[in-house]
């Protein structure tokens, strides 16, 4: 679901996930090198749907993947361009979970052969 449409339109000139994906890919494509690091506010969709997962939803209703589909699509398409992505770093998700205090959010997700989607 595309949220905060006015904010993204005013600040970045994008009105939907496809436009956002295209904008991210254009930046990656224009990079001077074939190694690209992604840095975002929120992580990509595909890192798990449990509340303790890297982008898991730990507020009501609990559970679900809160990752961004545009970032996930941009990562996949950037790889298809032949770029190497050794790191995707993001924040947004709090380390301490809201629904349980005995455990912390999983802070790192290591992909196998670069595949997480």
Structural write-up:
With 117 residues, the protein is α+β, with helices and mostly antiparallel strands. It has one domain (5-90). The chain contains 3 helices and 2 strands. It has a two-stranded parallel ribbon. The radius of gyration is 15 Å and the shape is globular.
Summary, kept brief:
With 117 residues, this protein is α+β, with helices and mostly antiparallel strands. It has helices spanning 5-12, 17-29, 69-80; strands at 35-40, 84-90.
Key structural traits:
117 residues; alpha+beta; two-stranded parallel sheet; 2 strands
SSE blueprint:
Blueprint: H1 5-12, H2 17-29, E1 35-40, H3 69-80, E2 84-90
Helix pairs in contact: 2-3
The largest beta-sheet arranges its strands as 1-2
Number of domains: 1
Q: Which class do the helix and strand fractions yield? A: alpha+beta
How many helices? The count is 3
Global geometry: globular
Fraction of residues in β-strands: 5-15%
Specify the oligomeric state.
single chain
Radius of gyration: 15 Å
- Elements, N to C (H/E): HHEHE
Taking pLDDT < 50 over at least 5 consecutive residues as the criterion, the unreliable ranges are none
Beta strands, count: 2
Average pLDDT taken over every residue: 86
Major sheet: size, sense and barrel closure? 2 strands, parallel
């Amino acid at each position: 679901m595309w949220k905060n449409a006015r904010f993204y339109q005013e600040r970045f000139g994008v009105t939907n996930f496809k436009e956002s994906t295209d904008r991210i890919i254009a930046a990656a494509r224009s990079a001077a090198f074939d190694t690209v690091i992604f840095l975002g506010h929120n992580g990509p969709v595909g890192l798990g749907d449990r509340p303790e997962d890297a982008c898991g939803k730990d507020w009501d209703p609990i559970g679900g993947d809160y990752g961004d589909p545009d970032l996930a699509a941009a990562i996949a398409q950037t790889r298809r361009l032949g770029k190497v992505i050794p790191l995707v770093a993001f924040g947004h998700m709090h380390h301490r979970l809201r629904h349980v205090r005995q455990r912390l959010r999983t802070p790192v997700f290591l992909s196998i052969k670069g595949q997480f989607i």
